[in-house]
Write a structure and sequence with these properties.
Largest sheet: 6 strands, mixed
Number of helices: 17
CATH class of the largest domain: Alpha Beta
Number of domains: 2
CATH topology of the largest domain: Purple Acid Phosphatase, chain A, domain 2
Mean pLDDT: 90
Strand order of the largest sheet: 4-3-2-1-14-15
CATH architecture of the largest domain: 4-Layer Sandwich
Length: 608
């Protein structure tokens, strides 16, 4: 007994000495004004589109918690659910892949992220489109992650080719009974009608799956109390409405609860009195919370109501402590601290904190208009692309460079630009191809053609989470502040952040912290940058048309349409630069040579 007491005391001491959160991160401002969580009979914590941001936001205090902090938060929320005699389930809607150094810098890509996610206490998860673009990513997701999570990993409309035969990517559905409220639930895991998967995987159209015998059998089970759809689907798309209508046609009185993702926004939608949907943002900025309560949850109570409550929780330790009823001495769990230590070690091994240069100012994707001096798209087109996208054998040939706006993922902040930052901003591996010696009279019409074209930009942009119209006025970087003591009677500290507009926000704002909203400007669908044009402003006779291989099919179609012929096809273009010359690499090279850090004492900069 004495030995056990000693071990317990040692564990307690270690927890007091250790704190999760990455060492480069900063605490959020003190004394924030919180909106409380409303617990119900069954409760859900939801994340989506994390894209490898499991180390948190090192330059944004409002979203500085890492996966270790979230694991500690989950542990305390499970304890609270048990104490209150209610149920709690932890969900994730996919797109854990691509967009952060923890994923993109590892070899093979995703090795680190998959190892971290396997230690995550999640009850149900599903697949996003970014798990399907690449053959290795899709195959390892199926071979490593699906077996680990077993029947909790749901993919209702994805198949994978194994040895020449199509088989379900993961479990199609799951029926279970909650331990405390004895609710019988059937869950599904859908993805939108994604057509860009690697040939090893196929996404079956939702409308077809809804007619398959297995699905019809699941939704016809009379013993089910409610249906749960954990999806990688935007709430306002036709696919989610189709799923709702199919289940509702067979079950006119049962609860249908959706969780969505894909478009990187906070959102909440009501389908009917017993059906709603929650979408919980992106990039480990948001942990969604939703609760359901009332007799209407159980079958046989068709006239009884179901009460629903939702919150979008900012991803930081102060909020996690507030909502879990803990403090700095009781919040961290051993599992959470171990996860934080693992993330720190992986970041060090991958050299993600290596300082490449220092950004001279903030550059935003959406908080300043395009074009403008502080807009990142503008900086790319006027400064970076003309300098870095060059073919030494055709260096003097005028060229037009086209990239899709959705290829850029995150803002650049003034100060330290690290190896990791390059993946946050531009993570994709598209290569530059080109069409040589195109008549300028044809090339000058390409931008408008792309803007008018519905494909691939609207489709590809949606697949990458770029939504030109969102119900959000989303985050803005807040100033770094160190943790301070809260003073009794101090006024609430309002920071810039999400002020979400959703189905209920007019009367019940969903954001858990009261923020000051900031404007959001639309992103360009396509960027055009001109290089090596005549200095006197005259128009060249011929130009090279340079573009990402990701959009090669549309470039071929555009050239053919404008010329009125058929001589171009997506496989006939040449490489403009080396295979290794991705935009990620070019940005790193530019920052290293052009964005010098100030000497000590001269201003911001230095190692994170």
């Amino acid at each position: 007994m004495g030995k056990l007491t000693t071990v317990t005391a040692l564990t307690t001491l270690l927890l007091q000495l250790c704190t999760a959160i990455q060492p480069e991160s900063h605490s959020p401002p003190p004394n924030q004004e919180f909106r409380e969580l409303v617990w119900g009979d069954i409760n859900f914590l939801h994340t989506t589109d994390n894209h490898g941001w499991h180390a948190g936001h090192l330059q944004e205090p409002q979203y500085s918690a890492d996966l270790g902090d979230y694991i500690s938060f989950i542990s305390h929320m499970r304890r609270r659910a048990e104490e209150n005699g209610v149920d709690l389930y932890v969900l994730d809607s996919g797109d854990r892949a691509e967009g952060n150094g923890l994923w993109d810098a590892s070899n093979p890509k995703g090795y680190v992220t998959r190892s971290l996610v396997r230690k995550w206490d999640v009850d149900i998860l599903t697949t996003g489109n970014h798990e399907l673009y690449n053959r290795t990513t899709a195959l390892l997701e199926h071979l490593e992650m699906v077996p680990y999570f077993g029947d909790r990993y749901l993919s209702s409309n994805i198949d994978i080719d194994i040895d020449g035969a199509w088989k379900p990517f993961a479990n199609r559905s799951l029926t279970f009974t909650t331990p405390r409220k004895n609710l019988t639930i059937t869950a599904f895991g859908f993805i939108f009608n994604f057509t860009g998967a690697h040939p090893i995987a196929r996404v079956k159209p939702v409308s077809l799956v809804l007619k398959e015998p297995w699905f019809l059998k699941e939704i016809s089970n009379p013993d089910v109390d409610m249906f749960l759809v954990v999806s990688h689907v935007d709430l306002n798309t036709g696919e989610m409405q189709e799923i709702h209508d199919a289940i509702r046609a067979v079950n006119p009185d049962k609860q249908i609860q959706f969780f969505g993702g894909h478009s990187h926004i906070r959102n909440f939608k009501v389908f009917d009195e017993k059906s709603s949907a929650l979408q919980s943002g992106r990039y480990c900025e948001t942990a969604g919370f939703l609760s359901l309560s009332g007799k209407g949850l159980w079958r046989g109570n068709k006239d009884a109501e179901v009460r629903t409550s939702r919150r979008y929780i900012d991803f930081n330790r102060d909020g996690f402590m507030h909502h879990s009823g803990t403090d700095v001495e009781t919040f961290d769990t051993l599992e959470g601290i171990r996860m934080t230590e693992d993330i720190t070690a992986h970041r060090q091994d991958l050299l993600l904190n290596e300082l490449i240069g220092c950004a001279p100012q903030d550059f935003s994707l959406s908080h300043s208009p395009y074009p403008s001096e502080s807009n990142w798209y503008s900086y790319l087109t006027t400064t970076l692309l003309p300098v870095m996208v060059r073919n030494p054998n055709r260096a003097e040939v005028p060229h037009m460079i086209f990239i899709n706006g959705g290829s850029q993922r995150f803002d650049v902040f003034k100060g330290a630009f690290t190896y990791d930052t390059s993946f946050l901003v531009s993570p994709f591996t598209s290569r530059f191809h080109f069409a040589r010696d195109v008549d300028y009279s044809v090339a000058e019409k390409l931008l408008q053609w792309f803007i008018n074209d519905a494909s691939p930009y609207s489709t590809a942009a949606a697949a990458m989470g770029e939504s030109p119209i969102t119900p959000n006025t989303p985050l803005h970087r807040v100033r770094r502040r160190e943790r301070q003591q809260h003073v009794l009677g101090m006024a609430y500290n309002l920071t810039k952040g999400y002020t979400t507009s959703d189905a209920w926000s007019a009367t019940d704002p969903g954001d858990d912290v009261v923020h000051i909203g900031t404007p959001r400007y639309p992103a360009p669908k396509v960027l055009q940058s001109n290089a090596e044009f005549p200095a006197d402003g005259t128009k060249p006779e011929k130009v090279d048309v340079v573009f990402f291989d990701f959009i090669a099919g549309s470039v071929a179609q555009a050239l053919n349409d404008i010329e009125g012929g058929d001589r171009w096809n997506r496989t006939g273009f040449e490489m403009y630069m080396g295979y290794e010359d991705t935009l990620t690499k070019l940005i790193l090279e530019f920052v290293k040579t052009q964005w010098k850090c100030p000497e000590a004492g001269e201003g911001e900069g230095g190692q994170l």
